[in-house]
Design goal:
291 residues; alpha/beta; Rossmann fold; 2 domains; five-stranded parallel beta sheet; elongated
Length: 291
């Protein structure tokens, strides 16, 4: 499947996949697909950064390969590992003579014992894949430097098997919640886009796309309440994902209005911190008019 050639076409393709992208984001993605270049998406938690990669893969029929970053992640966990359990079984199956034979030992480090991790899998699949490197800011500086090297030439050296080089570049989306600053070298390698909180009107439209069965009046009231929550001094302000979850939760309960009682019962769908929860309930009258 060919990628769209205009921003309007790409915006419509993403919309059909359930993602409402503004013109800035759609432009960045179009340039990324055309050059190709990795895209670094930063923004608040829950504004749809990860969803971009998922929708790109879905609407263009590519395989989504996700590398979830975390503190302490190693290169082997991102690249490849050897299946030591199967290798040990193979060794036990070999006769004593075979176990000392150099060719038999070499076979223990053949392709069938290689466990592909996300980066190697993405390099092998090339432009048939969308590689999501999620929350790169959680990894350490050394891993970030290693990642920059991989993204520069899309090739991986496996000492026992040789070099694996991509025939074509995969689509690469990196996300960051800015828990730490990323190095300038990685930023320069990527196209950059900041995803902020949408306006109330746009957020209502996003919810309508994701939850078309929800009543319009309920959606507007939930969105208005969420925007009031974001103005409060909360430790974990709700993102767009929480807005959608709140509408879904109210729908499951058969609620067609955001009443004070309904809000109090379902506030856990949008507030995920104990202190925040107490603060919101104390100020419910300001958040839900009529409470």
């Amino acid at each position: 499947m060919e990628y769209p050639r205009t921003v309007t076409e790409l915006t419509e393709s993403l919309r059909q996949g359930g993602y409402l992208a503004d013109r800035g984001l759609a432009t960045t993605l179009l340039v990324s697909l055309s050059l190709p270049r990795p895209v670094l998406l930063e923004g608040e938690v829950g504004v749809g950064k990860t969803e971009v990669a998922k929708v790109l893969a879905a609407v263009f029929g590519r395989q989504l390969i996700r590398l979830q970053c975390y503190e302490g992640i190693t290169t082997s966990q991102a690249l490849y590992e050897w299946d030591y359990a199967r290798q040990m079984l193979q060794i036990r199956a070999l006769s004593q003579a075979e176990a000392t034979d150099e060719q038999s030992v070499d076979k223990l480090f053949g392709p069938k014992f290689l466990l592909e991790r996300p980066l190697l899998e993405a390099v092998r699949r090339g432009d048939r894949a969308v590689l999501l490197i999620d929350e790169i800011d959680r990894a350490d500086d050394e891993f970030e430097a290693f990642l920059l090297e991989v993204l520069s030439d899309y090739q991986i050296s496996i000492p026992e098997l040789g070099t694996v080089k991509a025939d074509s570049s995969p689509v690469v989306i990196l996300t960051s919640n800015r828990t730490r600053e990323l190095h300038d070298a990685l930023r320069r390698r990527c196209l950059y886009h900041w995803i902020g909180y949408p306006t109330a009107a746009r957020e209502a439209e996003i919810v309508a796309i994701r939850e078309p069965a929800a009543a319009g009046q309920l959606t507007r009231k939930v969105v208005a309440a969420v925007h009031r929550l974001r103005e409060m001094d909360l430790a974990k302000p709700p993102g767009v994902a929480e807005t959608i979850d709140w509408v879904r939760t109210l729908g499951v309960l058969g609620e067609t209005e955001l009443t004070p009682d309904a809000a109090n019962d379902t506030i856990g769908a949008v507030i995920k911190d104990r202190d925040d929860l107490d603060l919101v309930r104390e100020n419910l009258a300001e958040i839900i008019p009529g409470a």
